Amino acid sequence: MKSAIEPGILHRPDGATIAYHATPGKSPGVVFCGGFMSDMTGTKAMALEAACRERGRAYVRFDYFAHGLSSGDFADATIGRWADDAVAVLDEATRGPQVLVGSSMGGWVMLLAALARPERVVGLVGVAPAPDFTEDLMWRRFDDAVKRTLETDGVYYEPSQYADDPYPITMKLIEEGRRHLLLRQPIAISCPVRILHGMRDPDVPWRHSLRLIDALRSDDVVLTLVKSGDHRLSEPDDIRRLTDTVESLCRDLEPD
Fold this sequence. Notes:
alpha/beta
C-alpha cells in the first residue's frame, strides 16, 4: 500500500488502472465508494479519511474507472464496471473485514460489492443510497425527447447543478444498469446497515431508502432522516453525523 501522498495503482485485466489511497489501521476497515462523477478527493471521502486516521482505523478511498486519477473513457463506463472496481479494491487494497460507505451511486456499488464478497463485508453505511438509479431515477423520468436522443445518439448530456459541464448519460449505462437492478427482489445482505438521507434531496428522494430497507434481508437496518438535508449531506453537521455513524458501527463490529 502506498503513502497518502502518492496513490496506489491497481492494474485491471483489460489494462485499465484504478487509483486509490490506503491508510493502515485497525479492523474493521472502511472503504468509501463515491458518487456519480465524483472522485476520491470529495468532502465526505476526505473527512472519513481524517476521522479514521484519528481513530487508528484502516481506510481506503479510490477512483472508479473514468473518474479522477483512474484511467478510462466515461463513454465506456457502466454500473457493473464500477462495482467490479470496488470488488478489486476490496480484494487487493484491503485486508480483513470491511465496512463499506456508499454515497448516492456509491450506495448501489457498495450493495453489489457486498453481494459479491459477503465474507469480507461486515457492515454498510449509505448516504442517500441510489440503487437502480439509472432505471428508476433517470430512464423513467426522462421525457420522450431525451429517450429518443439516447436511442439515436447513444448519449444525452444532462445539465447538473453540481458541475459546470453537463453529465454525459449513455445508453450503454442505462442498458447495462438493468443487469444489476436490486430493488425488484429481496437483497441477500444480512449485515448491519445504516442509512443517512436528507429529506430535501432533489436527486434521490428519501423514500427511495424505504424501498431499499424493504428489500434488504437484514433486520439490523437504521435509517436517519435529516429534515433540512440535501443530496450531498456535506455540511459540517452532516459530516459529523456520517463519521460518528461509521465509527459507531465499526466499534460494534470490532472483534472481542
